[in-house]
Amino acid sequence: MHHYKNHSEKLKQIISGKLSLKENVKHFLKRISDHSHLNAFNEVFEQEAIQQAELIQQKIKDGKHGKLAGLVIAVKDVLQLKDHKTTCSSNILKNFTSIYTATAVQKLIDEDAIIIGKTNCDEFAMGSSNENSVFGPVRNPVDTERVPGGSSGGSAAAVAAELCDAALGTDTGGSIRQPAAFCGVIGLKPTYGRVSRFGLTAFASSFDSIGPFANNIHDAAMILETISGKDEKDSTSSDLPVPFYSTRLDQSDKLKIGIPKEYFGEGLASDIRTAIENAISKLKINGFEIIDISLPHTEYTIATYYLLTTAEASSNLARYDGTRFGYRSDEFDALSSMYKKSRSKGFGSEVKRRIMLGTYVLSAGYYDAYYRKAQKVRRLIKNDFDEAFKQVDVILTPTTPTTAFKIGEKSNDPLQMYLSDIYTTSANLAGIPGISIPIGKDSYNLPIGLQLLANQFEEAKLFQAANSILNEIHS
């Protein structure tokens, strides 16, 4: 059934009549129900997806189709889709129905992609393992005893298990790249502002990015060029022109690749270290210039990230008070107790932990010591990258310190859990793009991810470097 290597090839097969889009959608729906134990979806749009397939098949026949015609895509359940639930995998929004569609999702629909469902995620996108969902954990398709990574675990698992062609996730500190690494797929976090955040439920507004998961670079590039661009509804979206990333994958200029020593210290699993070093030596052989660099403020990234994002989360999540929308407790005697009871029953423990941390760092006596200081360190971390990109085109690192851990293994130790994001948070602090690509397996046969980072709006370089590395590995 799946004999196309990317979307362009799939579209050719539909046009030539070798592939029926309706049958293809039914094939995915069957795979989703056969893999329900993975718990990757919060909602599947069965009837709607089949209807869309019929409509788009006709459009293709008439030659009036968009460039993503027939791409079957799953969307993380923090992105609004009109007349469907957006739960954010939280009790507080369990029955909330969207009244509009997120810009990124609308742009996919406008190009005739088929949305097959909403994927499970950590509650309000807070987590590194997809265990913080009111709908229960997502399981890693490679080994169902293990986590798929988070917070976009359902999207990563759905792409890895071939329950769809591609998926959208969101990345605030690694929530696309880390699950992509754990599940063995491609995941891209764009530059902050490249993709409109309109219709994304905010976690940390100055960090959040929307991006694609795919099984090949071409599809990731095609989705990014579709969802990017200026949006009047998001003042932080950039009006820089959007390149056609997917047509520039094979540009052969040998990029200069920086290797930051701070990302190869203790705590990095030896299998991952070996796999990354092998990839680097292959690049050397193929004429890429490999340059040792330093990002001296790396050790402060986790602390800075969790101070600033919890502060933003505490203000963003203040709107869920049981009054306007979402869950309301019915056991209260006064307004203040309605707020307290609705929030304490509506939010899970990780979300509460972050709201409390954030409220603490913003409080009068601690603001300067924590929040303001973290803002200054954020600037220093960005300066490190600015300096590095004067010497190199892309920076190459591991995506994660370990491969996928077991469900329950880190749930009781938030700090251990937070350290899962040690290599990914810096990109969100600096607002730069990053991609994770699968480069092999460890001794337990679990996927290993390699991360590439580029300067702001240099996604084209990420795709080119990723394409080169994947071609080397598979040659």
Polypeptide structure, described:
With about 475 residues, the chain is of the alpha/beta class. It has a single domain (about 1-475), classed as Alpha-Beta Complex (Amidase signature (AS) enzymes). It is about 40% helix and about 15% strand. It is built from 15 helices and eleven strands. The chain has an eleven-stranded mixed sheet, sandwiched between helices. Helix 2 runs antiparallel to helix 3. The radius of gyration is 21 Å and the shape is globular.
Order of strands in the sheet with most strands: 1-3-2-4-6-5-10-11-9-7-8
CATH architecture title: Alpha-Beta Complex
Calculate the terminal CA-CA distance, rounded to whole Å.
25 Å
Question: How many H/I helices?
Answer: 15
The stretches of 5 or more residues where confidence is low (pLDDT under 50) are none
Mean pLDDT: 93
The CATH class is Alpha Beta
Secondary-structure element sequence? HHEHEHEHEHEEHEHEHHHHEHHEEH
CATH superfamily: Amidase signature (AS) domain
Q: Which bin fits the share of residues in helices?
A: 25-40%
Structural shape = globular
Largest sheet: 11 strands, mixed
Q: What's the domain count?
A: 1
Instruction: Please tell me how large the radius of gyration is.
Output: 21 Å
Q: Class by helix and strand content? A: alpha/beta
Strand tally? 11
Briefly note the CATH topology name.
Amidase signature (AS) enzymes
Could you tell me the strand content as a percent range? 5-15%
